[in-house]
Fold each of these.
Amino acid sequence: MITLGLLEKNTFLEAVNKKSGANVLECYQCGKCVSTCPVSSYMDFPPREIMQMIKLGLKEESYMANSMWFCLTCSACSGRCPREIDIPAVMEAIRHLAIEENYRSENKKVKDIRKFHDIFLDMIKRYGRNYELRMMAEFNIRTRNLFKDMHLAPKALLKGKIPIGHESTKSAKAIQRMFKLAGKLEKEKR
Amino acid sequence: MARVGVFVCYCGANIADFIDVPAVVEEAKKIKEVKISVLYKYMCSDPGQGMIRDAIVQNRLTSVVVAACSPRMHEKTFRKALSDAGMNPYMLEVANIREHSSWVHQKDKKAATEKANDLIRMAIAKSIANEQLHEISVPVTKRALVIGGGIAGIQAALDIADARIPVTLVEKSPSIGGRMAQLDETFPTLDCSQCILTPKMVDVASHPYIELIPYSEVIELDGYVGNYKAKIKKKASYVDFSSCTGCGACTQKCPVKVPNEFNMNIDKRKAIYTPFPQAVPNKPVIDATHCTMLLKGKCGICAKVCEKGSINFKMVDEVIEREVGAVVIATGYDLWDPKPYEEYGVGRYKDIITSLEFERMVSASGPTNGVPIRPSDGKVPKNVVFIKCIGSRDEAKGIEYCSKICCMYTAKHAILLHHKVHDSHAYIFYMDIRAAGKGYEEFVKRAQVETAATYLRGRVSKIYKKGDKLMVRGEDAQIGQVVEVEADLVVLATAVIAPKDNPSLARLLGVSYDKYGYMSEAHPKLRPVETAKAGIFLAGCTQAPKDIPDTVAQASACAAKVCGLFAGDTLKKDPMVSTINNEFCSGCQNCVKVCPYQAIVTEEIPLGHGSKELRTVAKINEGVCQGCGSCVAICRSMAINLAGFTDPQIINEIVAI
């Protein structure tokens, strides 16, 4: 059971609206996003419910949901939304807010997804672009699933789908500077 | 010798597929009076009618039989064709071979054809005995009676009066204005209700063609379309309106305080009172059930302070009569009492109020000067829960239908709450949001987005008290979880119901009403403004729940109907009415009893030629008679004759089968 008090200032709603640039209040709960979303069946709260939860100010429930981590940001939902709400931006906003406010889901899948994001960003930081083989290896190690998808490796390698080494980019240095600057800005903000 | 023409219609495939129409045509030719028998695809079409016109002239016909659809459909069409050809239109007979044969006997073509033959033979036989009839002209009294002075009655009266037709407007309460006068602002534009209504109220009072009779009721209506006679009871107001200036000294000094029904009993009024400051007429009346002078003979302060001497404690009810040609019923609506919602604690918890109470509170001229308060402690509420469908769509406790206006006024209330109390929040429990109307959906969006009202989809299961808060429990079906809202104030959107006096008024006027007490229209789609009784029309919520735009539109439609009725000096009526043959009438008065239209009265005539002794016979008012034939069937002495359905005609029909 959820108890609702005075929503005179729905700070959660305000934070989400500010970060996403969307207005969640516009949502009239038609559910078109849910039936459009290719992964909604894997989410514990499909996009429509997340929108209502934001409206009700259910911060914790929203942060602990797996929905925003499963969201592919494919924008099929917002493309079809009759109220033209940028739903992927809302999902993104909740992802950011959850990290900023240190909410960590203990759900194995969410943890893996978050690790995937971390490793991916790490690759970009190091090489200026993705180094697929290393990324795969690191992901398998960090998720303690060493032989995941290993049976596909020989075929993929032979066909040249996965380059053995990494190709460096000209702007790798510039990207590293961007990361540094972003880190500094974030610290200042705190 | 009679010369009959028979015209058989294919009705496309409707008749021709199931009846052997060429055979039917040939069969009719066998009757010796039939001079022409023809077939056509659509007899009702222009060429079809032309065929009839030509045949009448060429064959010098004396009567016409059309074998086609129901006479309800095209009898008028074919009658017109007859009169266009110079023939009396009542020489037409319609054999209904569609509804009575082809449609109901689709599986047996042979039997259907035989039945068609029978029906046509009967029509031919009847038409031979037809007599020439002429439309009856009934004089019209060009004055309309409007019952009810809410926005519906006001609009109807103004529109009729603007066409220079005198109107008598009868209002039950001391002032016109009705429910709309109680409203603060109106959806979807948030116009101030009083601001748009009061100019119309003043127009009514000052219009040269409107006679406003406030504080009175219609108690009797006799007569028929164009010629009604209404008895109106003017309730004793104990104030002489002609000399009263409306200064208000009496209401100030009156020591008796009683709950103010205009403000939903939130505050008090005096025993001598005007319902609200903008009342029309702005004259006070004395509430006889509370005035101590009238009850115990003590006090009389109002009479002492009145400079004009307008107070008259000896005033009694007065009955006046008005002759009118048409009546508009505009009695409005009542609100359902939510007492059966015991699980909500209605009656136990003071902070549960109805929407109209909330409306009066947020009204700038209301009992709380426009600020909503908690009745329990007078504090301004922050968290307000609105619950829709209280009594509406609830077969167990209330009524089955949707009250239509609650979705919109609840959205309005959420917006108004936010206007009046900035740091408040509105929760709305709803089952559906029904916002069908111009600008309505946009208005609901405004409540949801701009006002940020929280819409929770579900019916509230219970309300209980926790401290000074009311805990409102219901499901939010959007997230599939039970939610509890801590409410300072709960507002119930109670159902719109028919006024409790509607059934008695309907019986008095002779119109029908439905199981909820709403007045019934003549046809739900094509005659939504008329009642089944000619000359009586419906405006506003007296027929069904309606919002203000719909009510005003229907009121104007009533005015158009009344103006149409009064356009000529007389009304035309079908001549199929009964007449009494005084020689045979024994005066048993059985016909008086069976007549459903009260069209038969009695009269005294001399017993014999030149005799001074009198005897009683029945007399039929042909203006009221609808030609149903009940009197003909009950008459023992066969003294009654119904034009168009005379004994020879009926006997001919029977013989022809």
Amino acid sequence: MHKSIDQINERIRDGSVRVVTAEEMPAIVAELGEEGALKEVDVVTTGTFGAMCSSGAFLNFGHAEPPIRMERIWLNNVEAYGGLAAVDTYIGATQQSDTLEEKYGGAHVIEDLVAGKSVELRASSRGTDCYPRRMIDTDLLLENFNQAIMCNPRNAYQRYNAATNSTDRILHTYMGTLLPNSSNVSFSGAGTLNPLSNDPKLRLIGSGVPLFLCGAQGMVVGEGTQHSPAGGYGTLMVTGNLKEMSQDYLRAATMTGYGVTLYVGLGIPLPVLDLDVVRATAVRDEDISVDIMDYGVPSRNRPAIRKVTYAELRSGTVELHGEEVRTSSLSSFRNARKVAGELKHWIERGSMQLALPTRPIDAKKSARPMHQTSKGPRVLDIMDRQVVSVGENEEIITAAKKLLKGETNHLPVINGDNILVGIVTTFDVSKAVVNPGKAHFVKDIMKKKVITTTPDEPVDIAVQKLEQHNISALPVIDGGHHVIAILTAMDLGKLFGGRWLK
Amino acid sequence: MKLLVNFSRKKGRKPIIAQVVRDTGVLINVERAVIDSSEGEALIDVPDDQCRLVSDSMISLGANVRILEHGISLNESECVDCGACISICPREVFSMDNDWKLQLAEEKCVLCGKCIEACPHQALTLPL
């Protein structure tokens, strides 16, 4: 049996269409069988509601009198793109306010407009013969724009890896707050309700397909940026009219320590044409798995700790290293359901017709990492190889002499096998001199927990370590834990001379 | 009932909580305490019917006592029911109901405030 898109649209028009949500579909297929479900169900609605950073809107202001060619543009002190002719701009969701920083950003400007609040436009120009005006400052409501078109380059991720943190300090990431020692796991995504997870072969979702976008009827533009469906991480570029959107499905947010983002509600109705569609839309949370990644490793290649399914993540706890660890969702399953439910109503009421893609989206593509022609400075480019170290069994006065002679404030401490076992600073030695007590040897006053770096580490990572631990030097060690150099805050000055660039 | 007790440690270092436990015989549960050289603040839990007794006793020993009637406060119009707070809370105050709506067990809250910055929608605040 096969149904055509025209037959389904005819049923939408005459009101006989049978619509279910993607969450209801697995039980229907289990009860009626695949053939039965194909006969029974015409449309499956999907929905997702979560943080989608790669979002924003094109705005057209109309011309002022005298006219201005806006070159730098701010909306409520959030800078918007000024490279689009005279009176157009693109406001990106993650752009932060010049004054309020992460408390307010492009996402908040967009939400304020949708909520009916006025937004202050400030723009400047150098002035031209055709556009003589140099400054403009005016308050605008959403209705004052000729066009306000949301256009999001990367939305509706098919699935997203979960996150944990193996370090001993709290991490603030776009995956939310990650507690130390892998004591929590955060995840995002609607699982069984996710649009692309219900059409992984991209037979139904493609350019021109209608969708629910923040309460408005929008459209799939095509593949999203970073679209990587080969590994199960497809994305979509989508668009819709901001003037028809609702605050119920569009919310600005701030991830502490990371920045501003926009929560977007998005759903796509899928026409049940044949058995392949029935099978794809029968997908359950149990069938969709992701990796739990260790965000404690500051690299593109974060290690995967284990695989989990959305069913496990949503249960509230997952097992990690033999322990039950609590999970937190960053996306809202309740609102994802609301999106799929609202979309179901639209179709049952006949206010949305379905369409097949006018152009298909590649279902086999993989996103590649950045092509980097220069790697950026590494520790070995700026580290100080003239490192002076001290033995753990030496007297404190020896350390003091070395500090003076070496004109340094940090002495790595080594044992008899030349292995790094601690560090002493000018401060530690001064303290031992001022409060003479039982301490005689370096090992009595050294700090045993040493933060280190390696020659191959990017300087940016080493700088993060200095900042996070509030220290000013890192011993550079080789694979055998031998000190081969030291990196101090002073060495960072070499970067400005560009000496590492050859 | 939860009481927030503030005491100065300048005039001697009186063991106020221990003293109150001995004088009143009420078993006090200390849920959170920050004590430094000059002052201390403790969040204690006592049975409702002995709240007055403990409070009066603390005040007579020079402490300031405030009865906390509320735990963390949730602004429902800002909350989107994501659940980012759930795994952050050390006392398991937050949970999801069957409709994936966020539920608060306010009585478990010790006002540590850890959830406040974990909330992407700034929906959680400490009560005044």
Amino acid sequence: MAGPGDIDALKTELLSAVEAAADEAALEALRVEALGKKGQISLMMRSLGQMSPEERQTMGPALNGLKDTIGEAIAAKKAALEDAALDARLATERADVTLPIRPEPRGKLHPVTQVMEELAVIFSDMGFTVAEGPDVEDDFHNFTALNFPEGHPARDTHDTFFMKPREDGSQMVLRTHTSPVQIRTMMTQKPPIRIIAPGRVYRCDWDQTHTPMFHQVEGLVIDKGAHMGHLKGILMDFLAAFFETDTVEAQFRPHHFPFTEPSAEMDVKYSRAGDAVKIGEGDSWMEILGCGMVHPNVIRSCGLDPDEYQGFAWGMGVDRLAMLKYGAPDLRDYFANDTRWLAHYGFSPLLQANLATGLS
Amino acid sequence: MKFTLSWLKAHLETEASIDDIVEAMTMAGLEVEHVDNPAEALSAFTVAHVISAEKHPDADKLKVCTVETFEGTKQIVCGAPNAHAGMKAVYAPLGTYIPGADFALDRKPRKIRGIESHGMLCSAKELNAGEDHDGIIDLKGDWAIGAPAAEALGANDPVIDFEVTPNRPDWLGVDGIARDLAAAGLGKVITPAPKQIRGAFPCPIEIRLEWPEACPVFAGRYIRGVKNGPSPDWLKRRLEAIGLRPINILADITNFVSYDRCRPLHVYDAGKIGQTIVARRGKGDDQVWNDHSTRERVATANQTIDILEAGGDPARVLIEKSGRSKSELLEEAWAVFDGLDAFRALDGKTYWANPEQCVIADDRHILGFGGVMGGEESGVTDGTVNVFLECAWFDPEITRATGRATGIESDARYRFERGVDTGSIETGIDLATQLIVELCGGEVSEIRMAGEAPSAPEPIEFPVSEVKRLTGLDLPGGIVTKILMDLGFGVAGSGDTLHVEVPTFRRDCSMKADLVEEIARIHGYNRIEAVSLPKLPGRREPTATEGQNRARHARRALAVRGYHEAVTWSFCHRDQAALFGGHGKGLELANPISSDLDVMRPTALIHLLTALQENADKGIEDPRLFEAGPVYLTDKPDGQRMAVSGVRYCAAGRHWAGTREADLFDAKADAIAALEAAGAPVESLQAAAEARNWWHPGRSGVLRLGPKNVLAEFGELHPRVLKALGVEGRVIGFEILLDGIPSPKKKAETKARPALDRAGLTPVKRDFAFLVDSAVAADTLVRAAKGADKAMITDVSVFDVYAGKGVPEGQVSLAIEAVIQPREKTLTDKEIDSVAAKIVASVEKATGAILRG
């Protein structure tokens, strides 16, 4: 019959065996030998039944203690062995982290579309929707309805691209400005109207500062009571927002456009900053857009009464705005599609111009 | 339009500086483009006194001068023969830029034949102050040492060049500029009224107006006994300053009046014209004129006239050879022109006149295009003695049509096509007469007036409140009236509505808004207060349209996938378009900027592909480009579509971890990604090998919704198309038409999503391998499998495609995995087997495939 002394001896023996186990297999064999059905501790537990109550009083807890101690020791040893095995495996799993990743090409969005989105955001805040019209226009929308009478010298200033005559002799044109969208809008919508119309326009001219295709944005407000003071206000608000400056100093000069009366050109004070400009400082004037009160003939040709409705319109170059704000100096690059230029002057697709996180 | 400050001051009494004048012009709408102040170019040059001029010891033609300058006594070596002691010359210090010679003097004194020269004494030509280069300037008058040369040379008259908008022909006369500047508060108009000279005899020349629409009024006057020749200096200087070449007094007077009063005139040599002057339609026939033989006859006639008029040996030879007299030959040559209703104009070219063009003719010859250009033959020369002066009015549109058809650019055309003052006939003829008599002498006939000037413009009833309505400016009636009257308008009444008479030189003003512009412009646009636009009431819908949002999202999806956004020309070459089905009807440009860009593009792929090659040519690895832009199918507004197109090479690249060559499935993935971003229901997209013939016949396809609605094409571009475009290598791409994407159904009441159906039971996956004819599309098989039990089968995917050993020729082994989703309870093996059997049966029925054993 084993006594407490035997338990202590066994404990010492088993603990040192656990400690000495070299791997998980040895440890498992040891567990079976000690705690298995026929293991030493199990056999000793079984003998408790034959003991007197007094002996059992002592031996029971002692044996249970032994069982727990050895069980815990084996579990701890098992975790230690697993850790060691994992460490050993990981020690072999070694990569040169300085090697390059697989290429993940990223594209950029074109500065012109970025600026168009900025325009949409700024004017959307002032209640403007973005309107569109076709590039291939008829004479009525591009000229006649805009108060360019047939044979008027103002038509000459437009370097118009014509399509070959149709069978009926009429000739379509490539729109020379975004202003035809004014006509299309006024003929289909009821005032109050607030739109901007960005898009492609075409003039038969190609040199350092002109390309046969470029981009304009048109603005149009038709309402009762919209006057030139509002025109000035809206454009100054726009320029401040677009060029992200608090100080826009502008002057409006009288000019002539057939489709506005009175007409004006807007100049802003600026200074050069590399290829871009700083609006709101400096002492040179730069012409930035043409504008005016919509001509009564235009309002009338869209079926509205110019004594009841009035409003104003403006037009400016989108490419030029991009050049001024973002500083890509040569207009021709905008249409050359050199991916190095696009990567450099383009914009991340994750950027969405908006008033909460900024325009760019 | 150019004019000089001194010219302006002949019409405007003002103390304003040139800067103030430029500012006032700009703010009144006369947009100054350039001010050329000759004094600026001469600022380094000053008056110097030559103390002595001795012969150079080592050069016969050089002199060594001692010169008193503003910076002390200088020794200057000079080659001018007229250099002499006591003269007042123009001195250029070392380092000065010499404008007329376009070089700068050395900064250090140079030795000329051994003697140092400390500066230069200048000729008129070297200062751009004249043609004289024979000697240095010898200033007359008492000029102090150091006085500015510009002043001494009278070269201190700034030239202002400004843009004349097409609505303001009156600004093409200096008097009109003065009127606006006076109204803007810069001074007082002092334009002199011309003297009226009484005619001493009746005008011997009759005038007949046969086409009153083109030429409604024509005043003529005969002046006999004039003496023509070079103009006086003041007149020459005035014309030269604005870039006109002085010719002779009579011609210079017409040019002067044209710029001084925007009143074009014409002077004929009365000895070379007939007794009756007619303004009529041309009688020439375009078809006859364009005939080759006509051109030859005209060329011969021109040659004969040139030779005979030049005289000398060639003329003698010609006369001898013909056996006829000079006058006979000339007569015959001119008859060629007369027969064609053609003439030789002052620009030396020969023109013919068709019935759409207005000519001035005598009983035999055409003398010129009315209001455009006169004829060479009837023009005045130094020998002219008697002249006939024309002061007429020509219709702007007819003048313009003639100008365009003939390509003649002239000061007269420029003015008449914009609209010359209809009230300027008398002033014009009086001023011209006055100048001719003053400068050429002669005896003046009475004025012969034919026809009648067009009636005065309609008056405008002008409510003063219009100013405030359109500009926000609240101006008292008194200011409104003053501005209008200063500008030459007649104003009656002083109440709420003014009766405004429009002067004949302001036909651009025909309605209230025109007057508002005049008032605001002169009062000053800068005095209009900027007011922010009030917000529209209520909530606003998002302002972008569905189409705009589609493009916006598709563009971002593609950029994220590595494509740079391009913007390419809307036009292309017809041969390029032909590779892609050809350009649409009515989309050929009549006047392309270059023959490479002569039709509207049917696809954006053309320029993307050529741009891809250009990038590759620059050594850029694996460029990828897309464009979201228009393509043009017809010339109607709905013939323009929004396309999103992209291209990239089938590039593998190189990478240490291994690479894969891009193939059509990359293009398909890109197209689907863009479509998904644009809001297309990509779950419902069907692929089919039906791409058009610019795609690779075996490696391309379409993505469509139903059989008709093709949303995209994708795949490898056809090698022949690439070759024709000069693109090397294999290229994949896609083109999506966004307009075909169906709009979401009528906006939902709420943006809340339906409850999530998250099946609680674990799905079962089963694999099947089928042997199927290789012509069967995998998609057909997958759809058949899916359709076997729509309630249970939630997904079917292809995980292996194999042909080769073990698979019969002409067949392919397609392995699919089907996901079976139990709904209410876990499925028994029997139930699962039953779904599997349905799949096999459905696939077999649809495709003839056999389950592999």
Amino acid sequence: MITHSRRPTFSEPHPYPGRLIIVEGIDGSGKSTQLQLLNKWLVNSGYRVFFTEWNSSALVKETIRRGKKRNLLTPTTFSILHATDFADRLVHLIVPPLKAGMIVLADRYVYTAFSRDVVRGVHPAWVRNLYEFAVKPDLALYFKVPIEVSLKRILNGRINLKFHEAGMDLGLSDNPSESFKLFQNRILEEYDKISKEYDLTVIDGTATIHRQQELLRKMTKEMLQDFRPMPYLQKKENIYVR
Amino acid sequence: MSARKGKIYFGTGLPYFDASEIKGKLIVIEGTDGVGRSTQIENLRQWLEIKGYGVATTGWTRSPLISKAIDDAKAGHTLNVNTFSLLYAADFADRLENEIIPALKAGFIVIADRYIYTAFARSIVRGADPKWIHKVFGFALEPAAVFYMKIGIEDLIPRVINSQTMTKRYWEEQSGEGMDYWESGMDLRLGEDFYDSFIKYQRLILREFNAMARRFKFIVVDSSISFEETNKALKLGIGSILEHDEAS
């Protein structure tokens, strides 16, 4: 069954009572750590928080996984499948909490697709149009770090780089760590363009965790100045923290 | 490739693909459900092959990559219009890049049974923004010609309400349906039952097609008279495209 909804477009502020905060950055930029800390603070301050991640819906997850494994995906199908996945998640996981007046925290958002898919070869204007139905964030943070820093952070956590993380499918280099650098460098270039185009708030991802978090909380507070929680969400309760 | 109006792509294109590698021709046959497209296409294939052309056909069926996702989605998932439109776009992109383009590169005449215009009509009647959906399919190749097999709703009814197909669908395919759920636009809840819904849905689709016929310069082929009349008109149209190409 198809459901109809008059939805806002990505170029104008959304009409929902909730707030959408998104973080962007290359792998190892520290964005997830920062978002988790923000999550804890918001919950502790009595807000109802709803956390969501990029690429996690059931609808096309299996298809993307299978396609990646067999190297079947072209840049265009790869891009559209992620948009499909996002469209599904938007309807099921992002819009309902926003309508209910919650604070939605998204780890990566459409800008991830804008940068990654363009590096893979699709047209920049085409992929932007693909996500025209997305909800415009109230606060969009871009964690900027040099490649060397992110690579170090990733390799600290585990031994090998994942095939797609290193952009190995692009054939830039046979060496995963070399390929990662080349691939992520191009992603960084795209992020730089995007952060200007969409006026993302740039955070220096090389600063200390504590310093970054202070900045984030300050900006979130400002953004929430005119935010009035729905009466049914005002009761403070113990909410699970991820 | 002599696409219409010298355009190679419908929109922004495929930046990573060199279109000069295309040697063949893409011919599109559009028309609503039940208009007899596949019978015509089979005949055209034989006719072209006898003339010595390599022919490949492609349908609006599902590609192996996406089919499972579409089935899962249709099987009970609540589909939003954007999700619906994008799933079909992904499916089409897969077929374009893995079937249509390789055949065109090899110099075949590719006859497409339905093309992006079917996706436009279906998405737009479900509430998609026309501008958005046109741009989504901007990577599609511009066909050499689009033939629109046109019939009115009154011609469509006797073709769809047909004991052979309906009996088969109900009993042999065990779908529990006489008329097709999607052809009847049942997801849109336009009418009380399959029949009412079918009439309303197909009217909306026909309206979209008629508007597109003007906008995208379809070659309109009146398909309400007979197989032979339609066939003659299609052969005439295709013949002139091939001649024009050889002359230039």
